[in-house]
């Protein structure tokens, strides 16, 4: 994401509306806390907001032009009145906050406003957090703080009380899919991944994994075996499935993929083919869906969800999958 106002509004409309109103109504707070999962646009929003506050020629009074000197220098990270603090190693140290305070005690180099962004604000040491608290308790009228965190529960309540908190919602599957395709991921793979994670960055990592590409083939093959020759399903588990899904997290991902197949069959029965994830299997799935009742499909999806729950409670993975296969082939009415 390049981080334009329009792009961010598409994925975080409520946040961008609040920031727009704070600018147009001249009610910019002295401190904001952007909180939400990784990959939800917090860092990009902080950058765009900083440009909006310092842009020389804002569009419609609030959007950065991205053409003026201030916008370009903020984008490149070398504006003298815009600072960023990130963890050094595992934490943000007291010295980093102290240096920031000293920098901000000096008069603004060019403008009346100074902006600082603290990334992973939850990783401040106790001493750093206390130093920042003093900074927030006596805010300068020309200073705007933008704190960002994925772990709001780790933040000091006294700091939270001095910030305007803006929650960043997980990305919708449509947004994740769109962004993955924009980054070169094929549409089919992007559709599947968008059902597995709200995190674009994680989705991009998954798309590059050879393991994941192979996982999809193995899951689809298990489904085919269950459909055509249920008695061979247990053999297939030992010949291929367990060789690929070795770790608990991998097995959980495999169960997610299997669930999506049965969900696709249900979408077809409900005449919602546009929602089918495995569009490349649509023709095959349509014929399969004719031979299953909605009750049977619901039962099979329930078996998979129950297997996921048992997996998290340390049930033996091999026994779990063997039982799931037996449950899925019971009452199968594929013809």
UniProtKB/TrEMBL annotation:
<keyword id="KW-0548">Nucleotidyltransferase</keyword>
<dbReference type="InterPro" id="IPR027417">
    <property type="entry name" value="P-loop_NTPase"/>
</dbReference>
<dbReference type="InterPro" id="IPR004622">
    <property type="entry name" value="DNA_pol_HolB"/>
</dbReference>
<dbReference type="GO" id="GO:0003887">
    <property type="term" value="F:DNA-directed DNA polymerase activity"/>
</dbReference>
<dbReference type="GO" id="GO:0006261">
    <property type="term" value="P:DNA-templated DNA replication"/>
</dbReference>
<dbReference type="GO" id="GO:0008408">
    <property type="term" value="F:3'-5' exonuclease activity"/>
</dbReference>
<dbReference type="Pfam" id="PF13177">
    <property type="entry name" value="DNA_pol3_delta2"/>
</dbReference>
<protein>
    <submittedName>
        <fullName>DNA polymerase III subunit delta</fullName>
        <ecNumber>2.7.7.7</ecNumber>
    </submittedName>
</protein>
<keyword id="KW-0808">Transferase</keyword>
<dbReference type="InterPro" id="IPR050238">
    <property type="entry name" value="DNA_Rep/Repair_Clamp_Loader"/>
</dbReference>
């Amino acid at each position: 994401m390049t981080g334009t106002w329009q792009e961010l509004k598409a994925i975080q409309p409520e946040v961008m509306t609040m920031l727009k109103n704070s600018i147009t109504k001249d009610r910019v707070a002295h401190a904001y806390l952007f909180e939400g999962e990784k990959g939800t646009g917090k860092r990009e929003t902080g950058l765009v907001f900083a440009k909006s506050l310092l842009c020389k020629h804002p569009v419609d009074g609030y959007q950065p032009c991205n053409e003026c000197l201030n916008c370009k220098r903020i984008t490149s990270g070398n504006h003298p009145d815009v600072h960023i603090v990130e963890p050094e190693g595992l934490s943000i140290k007291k010295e980093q906050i102290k240096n920031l305070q000293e920098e901000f005690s000096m008069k603004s180099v060019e403008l009346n406003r100074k902006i600082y962004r603290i990334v992973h604000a939850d990783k401040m040491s106790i001493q750093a957090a206390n130093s920042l608290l003093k900074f927030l308790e006596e805010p300068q009228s020309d200073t705007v703080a933008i704190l960002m965190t994925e772990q709001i529960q780790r933040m000091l309540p006294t700091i939270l009380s001095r910030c305007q908190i803006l929650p960043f919602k997980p990305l919708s599957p449509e947004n994740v899919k769109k962004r993955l395709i924009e980054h070169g991921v094929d549409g089919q793979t992007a559709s599947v991944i968008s059902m597995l994670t709200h995190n674009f960055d994680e989705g991009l990592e998954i798309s590059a994994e050879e393991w994941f590409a192979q996982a999809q083939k193995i899951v689809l093959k298990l489904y085919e075996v269950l459909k055509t020759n249920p008695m061979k399903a247990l053999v297939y588990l030992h010949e291929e499935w367990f060789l690929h899904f070795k770790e608990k997290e991998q097995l959980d991902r495999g169960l997610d993929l299997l669930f999506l197949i049965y969900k696709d069959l249900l979408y077809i029965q409900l005449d919602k083919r546009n929602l089918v994830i495995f569009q490349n299997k649509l023709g095959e799935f349509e014929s399969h869906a004719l031979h299953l009742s909605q009750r049977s499909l619901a039962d099979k999806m329930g078996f998979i969800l129950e297997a996921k729950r048992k997996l998290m409670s340390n049930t033996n993975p091999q026994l779990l999958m063997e039982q799931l296969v037996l449950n899925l082939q019971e009452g199968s009415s594929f013809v």
